[in-house]
Design a protein that fits this description.
about 700 residues, mainly beta, 2 helices, 40 strands
């Protein structure tokens, strides 16, 4: 599978550790009487978690895998976040998460743990952020540095699958200029397998049982690089230019075997092979200003992000019956997308601990998708397809939030207004929409002494259907499997309420979050068996749904060298399910969470000495509109050893329980299928990371 690319640029060097900074005698932070002070070493560990009125901030730099892990590995350890075996990200057990990099939209391809300074989790974002992502927002903040001179890091990674990666990220700070660059090259193979048992109508009033088994091999080579150039005109103003590119090319091979227990089904072996290609470029320019009032900021940013994704394959289907002609077809999916965004943000502290934030943004998405399905032998013209769909979406937005104290409470109401224009063209037919949406938010907090903190919040979010989800043309994945868009889809709107209570004393912290999310127009897939034996799936709006639950997160030390983090999320899900051909409301209890147990040889010096961490992540079973899926449990073990102050090795054992297998069941009109999927299984990864420049 293609590795994942950062939309922003990991351009500026890493900041000096907060637990060890040298303060020169001439610093403006010295005593007011300007007495000469010798160099002072300030020792104090940066908090692992910082709680703000609208987010939880997690410092991930001390994680043993911070130098080499992928973004999904890092996110899988953070409270409230669940990463599924296929790479999906959930917040409080719910899908529909928006991931930002340095506050900007983008994917995380080629971004590594070494690039990340902290992760901001907003399960109930304020009106400052766009409403996309009904489950919330994860903002990944990359590392930055202002130390004069050259710094950077170099990392090499190999794993037991035959994959590997080498990356280099040098950085220079020369007076008012900051230059950051990064380049990396990698190879990542991936293997998976599946089996399925399907019972479907045979077209003659009977039922045929079909067994399928498959093996899939992927391989991808990628190259990424970029730079960020920053000019600090003075202590208040800076300008930047950035560029980041990513390209991955790969091959896919698969072999599937299908056999039935009836003469109505012809047994076959199917083989496929084809190329895949992904490319993306992000260009950015911006201006940042800091006012004379502490905390006053203004930012203006322009970004352009073209990307392309191509996948093709040629499929050969050989029937066991020699009287049947072997079939051959090819298919191609080509997607080109361009996004342009201009945004401005202003923040100003006012008297009496009041803070005003306001901003505006314009975003344009221009996307073209082409789908080709061509029969090469055993012609079947009804299934041949060569179709394009083109869509343009413009969104103009403005927001305001106002934070103020009232009695012993702090309030932050907010409002975001978005005007959306959307046009789509498919096969000569046109459609579109022109709407104005209002998204209110409210965050309230109060400290009860030094130990307790209470937070209450509300927000409204939206999930708009994508371009292919609106196209009514049938798109084939194989000769008997296809999907079709639905031009009548409505956006999903979600109202979210939360109440969070935190208690902290020393290194011990416990947080309890009660939440409720109620969605209207929930999107779900509905499958049917067509008259010619094709399993056809279509997205539909399936009425109301709700998630209500409680999350408990506990963090602390067992002893001087041992620490732990445990997060458990228990929730009730109400949704529409299809039963006997008619929808009904179904309720289900399930769970999710993660845990880490860590050991440090020298707790007082976290950057030296061995570290060992055992991590667990789990997700309970879930139901869908037409079926259900079982849960999963995954365990990973990491050992980090500093060889010198600058050279560090990390050894990671992933999926040590070999528990990546997942089973799902679909009950559709005309068929029922139970499918089991498994991934790579246990793997071993070793990395070496070298930091150069000033310590």
């Amino acid at each position: 599978m293609a590795a994942a690319m950062v939309a922003g640029v990991v351009g500026e060097p890493e900041p000096p550790p907060a637990d060890k900074q040298e303060v020169p005698a001439s610093s403006s932070d010295t005593a007011a009487d300007d007495k000469t002070v010798a160099d002072v070493e300030v020792v104090g560990e940066r908090p692992a978690v910082v709680k703000e009125i609208d987010r939880q901030i997690y410092d991930v730099r001390k994680d043993p895998e911070a130098q080499s892990a992928s973004v999904s590995d890092i996110l899988g350890k953070i409270p409230s976040v669940t990463v599924t075996p296929n790479g999906g990200v959930l917040l409080l057990g719910q899908s529909g998460v928006t991931i930002l990099v340095d506050g900007k939209p983008g994917s995380t391809r080629a971004l590594r743990g070494a690039d990340i300074e902290r992760v901001e989790v907003m399960t109930n974002p304020s009106a400052q952020y766009g409403p996309k992502g009904t489950a919330g927002i994860i903002n990944i903040v990359t590392r930055k540095d202002r130390r004069q001179g050259q710094t950077g890091n170099m990392t090499g990674v190999i794993d037991s699958t035959g994959g590997g990666r080498v990356s280099l990220a040098p950085n220079w700070v020369m007076g008012r200029w900051v230059i950051g660059a990064n380049i990396g090259v990698g190879r990542q193979p991936y293997e998976s397998g599946s089996r399925a048992l399907r019972r479907q109508d045979d077209g003659a009033g009977g039922v045929v049982t079909i067994r399928e088994a498959g093996r899939y091999d992927y391989g991808n080579d990628d190259l990424q690089g970029g730079f960020k150039l920053t000019f600090r005109r003075n202590d208040q103003q800076s300008f930047y230019l950035s560029a980041q590119g990513y390209r991955a090319e790969g091959d896919t091979e698969s072999r599937e075997r299908a056999s039935g227990d009836s003469a109505a089904f012809d047994d076959y072996v199917q083989r496929s092979r084809g190329p895949s290609r992904y490319s993306a470029l992000n260009l950015g320019a911006g201006y940042d200003w800091t006012g004379k009032i502490e905390g006053e900021t203004f930012g203006l940013a322009l970004s352009a992000s073209p990307s392309g994704n191509l996948y093709g394959e040629t499929v050969d289907r050989d029937f066991d019956n020699p009287a049947l002609p072997d079939g051959r077809y090819r298919q191609l999916t080509d997607n080109d997308r361009n996004e342009l965004e201009l945004k401005a943000d202003y923040k100003r502290p006012l008297s009496g601990d009041r803070i005003l934030s306001l901003g505006a943004a314009w975003n344009r998405e221009d996307e073209t998708q082409r789908q080709l399905y061509e029969t090469l032998t055993a012609p079947d013209p009804l299934r041949d397809l060569d179709r394009s769909i083109h869509g343009v979406r413009d969104v103009q937005a403005a927001y305001v939030t106002y934070q103020f104290p009232l009695w012993t409470w702090t309030f932050m109401p907010g409002l975001r207004v978005e005007a959306e224009q959307f046009e789509v063209e498919s096969g000569g037919a046109f459609g579109g929409a022109d709407d104005v949406f209002w998204y209110p938010s409210l965050h309230i907090s109060r400290d009860f002494g030094e130990a307790f903190k209470l937070g209450l919040s509300y927000s409204r979010r939206i999930d708009r259907p994508g371009l292919s989800e609106l196209d009514p043309v049938i798109r084939y994945y194989s000769t008997d499997s296809a999907s079709r868009g639905n031009p009548d889809l409505d956006p999903v709107t979600t109202d979210a309420w939360e109440a969070r209570l935190d208690y902290s004393k020393g290194s011990f912290n416990v947080g309890v979050t009660l939440y409720a999310r109620e969605a209207s127009g929930t999107l779900t897939s509905r499958s049917v068996l067509t008259a010619d034996g094709v399993r056809l799936s279509t997205l539909v709006n399936a009425g109301e749904s709700a998630n209500r639950g409680a999350e408990l997160s506990v963090r602390g030390n067992l002893a001087a060298q041992w620490s732990y983090v445990v997060t458990t999320n228990l929730f009730w899900r109400e949704q529409q399910v299809l039963e006997g051909g008619a929808p009904r409301t179904d309720s289900q209890f399930t769970y999710s969470g993660n845990a880490q147990l860590s050991w440090k040889a020298t707790p007082a010096k976290p950057d030296s000495g061995d570290q060992v961490q055992l991590g667990l992540r789990y997700l309970g079973p879930s139901r869908s509109f037409q079926g259900e899926s079982d849960g999963f449990l995954r365990a990973d073990l990491t050992w980090k050893r500093p060889f010198t102050k600058k050279l560090t090795g990390t050894l990671t054992f992933s999926d040590i329980l070999d528990s990546s297998e997942q089973t799902s069941l679909v009950r559709a009109d005309g068929y029922e299928q139970e499918s089991t999927y498994w991934g790579m299984g246990p793997t071993v990864r070793f990395s070496l990371s070298y930091r150069f420049g000033a310590p």
